[in-house]
Amino acid sequence: MLSPTQTQKFVDEMWMDSIVPELVEYIKIPNKSPHFDPDWEANGYMEDAVQQIFAWCTAQDIKGMKSEIVRLPGRTPLIFLEIDGTDEASEDTILLYGHLDKQPEMTGWADGLGPWIPVMREDKLYGRGGADDGYAAYGSLTAIMALQREGLPHARCVVIIEACEESGSYDLPFYIDHLSDRIGQPSLVICLDSGAGNYEQLWLTVSLRGMAAGTLRADVLTEGVHSGYASGVVPSSFRVLRQLISRLEDEETGRVLLPELLAEIPQQRIDQTRAMAESLGDEVWQAYPFVEGTEPMAEDNVNRLLNRTWRPALSFTGVDGLPSLDNAGNVLRPHSSLKLSMRLPPTVSGEAATAAMQKALEANPPQGARVSFEPDQAATGWNAPNVAPWLHESLQKASQSAYGRDVMYMGEGGTIPFMAMLGDAFPEAQFMITGVLGPKSNAHGPNEFLHVPFARRLTTCVAAVLADHYQRDTA
Ligand SMILES: [Zn+2]
């Protein structure tokens, strides 16, 4: 039996003496994901991050660990750690996942903070990539070490730290394939790159939304014309876009209209969402930096959560064809373009949704304008298999002893592109998808922080699950 107090003591020491100082250095490295730093190889920041984390991993006192930086030609590197199980004859394997590439800077950082400036304030470590997802390698190994120090048995563990996640994990399938013999067939996948509803209990992600995105463009003129001469005769390309967007969503409520983008919500997920709404109360919407007077969507917190996890929703993330305000002359512009970003329910195919959007947008263009929708790579979401009784029991016990509250099962509104892939690759596996991205932690935005006390307890929960996994009754 794992001793929660002893484990927490060891984990806390590791965090304060070793992990936090490591993350402070790690935050300083602008190792942006390849998508945001196409010259990542020449710039060398990725390599700096890989070397830093790898050096720490290999310096730890872990029995039976083999470590390697795997490099497939033309791809981002991957840290691969194999730790023998206590029972060396058993092939039973746990896969632990994290990533070390980062989102770009973003604007809006508060005074004294910045993406590459580590700052510790009130137990929160600010800076890019500490919470998303630099801590994962450190947390995973610390959990394994906690078991070994207490002499507790564990299954074989494989730790994968990739460097392409923020670009859609496009290199990961090649590594999973390349390493498939060494990975084996994990019975448990632990992923430390997800969210938390608050900092007061253990949160398991049981679904992720998918994504259909692309650029919608309307052309009406071959060149811009004085608006005093053209308006009233030439249709506005912006108005054409407005009409087209109304084919996708109700402009009053934001409700998505295309039937291909809707999914039936499983009853179990509705029940779990109710429990989550009860636990969070109005934090569900108060967690956002609303401008005063702006009201949240939907009529109640259950529906706000369902909107965010099981219903499609459209955002506009970029624009082209419109000059900036200080360059805005009185001209009827030749074209307008918008980047559409449609979040999808977990069970809707990203490809099918993209095709349905394209069809709806390009059919019968208003006033015969030239309309095109150029899709981006689609992503399909993920709905977890049912949680096995041993895992639920283990999570519940771990959450109670670390936080004094029940484990919560939540849908996540974002996409973790590789999850659908891992779900397909390991259909028999159980999944512990969790993370430290709680309220205001703001991964991808300004003022990203890692809530250190929460992360320490989460590390202990991971250790508890590793221990219970070995003792589980699979009958
Ligand atoms: Zn991440």
Which key terms come to mind for this protein?
475 residues, Aminopeptidase, alpha+beta, 4-stranded antiparallel β-sheet, binds zinc ion, 15 helices, 6-stranded mixed β-sheet, Alpha-Beta Plaits
Show the helix and strand layout:
Blueprint (H helix, E strand, L loop, with lengths): L3 H24 L12 H4 L1 H15 L5 E6 L7 E6 L9 E7 L19 E3 L2 E3 L3 H20 L6 E7 L9 H7 L1 H4 L4 E4 L11 E6 L1 E10 L5 E2 H4 L6 H12 L18 H14 L2 H4 L14 H10 L2 E8 L10 E2 L2 E10 L5 H13 L7 E6 L6 E2 L5 H15 L4 E5 L4 H9 L4 E4 L15 E3 H20 L4
Parallel strand pairs: 3-6, 3-7, 7-17, 8-16
Antiparallel strand pairs: 1-2, 2-6, 4-5, 5-18, 8-15, 9-13, 9-14, 10-12, 11-13
Helix pairs in contact: 1-4, 1-15, 4-15, 8-12, 9-11, 13-15
The chain binds zinc ion.
Instruction: Predict the CATH topology of the largest domain.
Output: Aminopeptidase
Radius of gyration: 24 Å
Shape: globular
| Whole-number mean pLDDT | 96
Which small-molecule species are bound to the chains here?
A: zinc ion
Structural class: alpha+beta
Question: What is the total domain count?
Answer: 2
What is the percent of helical residues?
Answer: 25-40%
Characterization of this structure:
The protein has 475 residues and is an alpha+beta fold. It folds into 2 domains: 4-208 and 381-471, Zn peptidases (Aminopeptidase); 211-281 and 300-375, 2-Layer Sandwich (Alpha-Beta Plaits), CATH 3.30.70.360. 37% of the residues lie in helices and 20% in strands. The chain contains 15 helices and 18 strands. The strands form 5 sheets. It has a 6-stranded mixed beta sheet with strand order 1-2-6-3-7-17, covered by helices on one side. A hairpin with a 7-residue loop joins β1 (65-70) and β2 (78-83). α1 (4-27) crosses α15 (452-471), α8 (237-248) crosses α12 and α13 (389-403) packs antiparallel against α15 (452-471). The longest helix is centred in the first third of the chain and has 24 residues, at 4-27. The mean pLDDT is 96. It binds zinc ion.
